[in-house]
Fold:
Amino acid sequence: MLFVVSYIATGQVIWNLGELPAVFGKDVQLVCTLPNNTFCCRKYNRIWNVGWKYTLTIMNDKSTNDTKYCEELDEDTHKSIITIRDFSVGDVNIPYECVYGFWKYRATLVLKEDEFEFHPEEQLPVKPAVNGYNISLNVTFQLVYPVPVCTAIIGVKNISSELILSSTTTQLLYMSTIVLDYRTSPNECTKSLIVTCLVGRTVLKVADFTPCASQDSPSMLFAIGIVVAVCAVVFFLILLTVCWYARRKRKKNIGENDKRENVPLKSRQDEGLANLGSQEDKRVTI
Structure:
């Protein structure tokens, strides 16, 4: 849809967009310069009309919708400033008219990429998915303006060519998706991966992440796995040795008991008498 940039001016009145860039969702100001003479700035009515029907919005500091519009008068600089609160898509590509007495200036506030920005509402930065040395990033900005320009760097290496950016229009704004599929190396993956997108004049950090942090490094995980395996084998061997030794000792004790039980009763009696006689001899000797 095309919008014709038109304006009507009578006398020494003109308005311009205030601070640049104008950001959707924030307050945006239009600054109207009034005649630079002794008639400024309360001799005549100051009026702001908005929309294609030129609806009266402000007259001499009084707003018909004070939750949306308000006026500030700077008499030193002869400026009438209208503030549009919570600036939205419905506030662009429509005419605004500044009137002072018999002078007026009417123009359409046209959406331009070098003047307006819509910052995505998604939480940033995001954490990429890492599988070994494979890095995957998939981020969608549901609403953004203008189309972001993105770069990706890992360490000092520019890998922006690996980024895939696709955008579609949503009303006057865009929906943009950023995709990165990249295979790094053992040395490279220990460095920071930084993905940034330039939205108009604003830099957004989409990702700031070290793929192979010490606790996530594939080589570290492999080393930990080796240590765990070795410890498990050693523990198993120790347990096996203890069990074998305990079983052997148990068999030995059982064997000795069996031998003792197999000695004839007479032999055991003779042995007992011999021991008794030996004890009596000792007594006599004493």
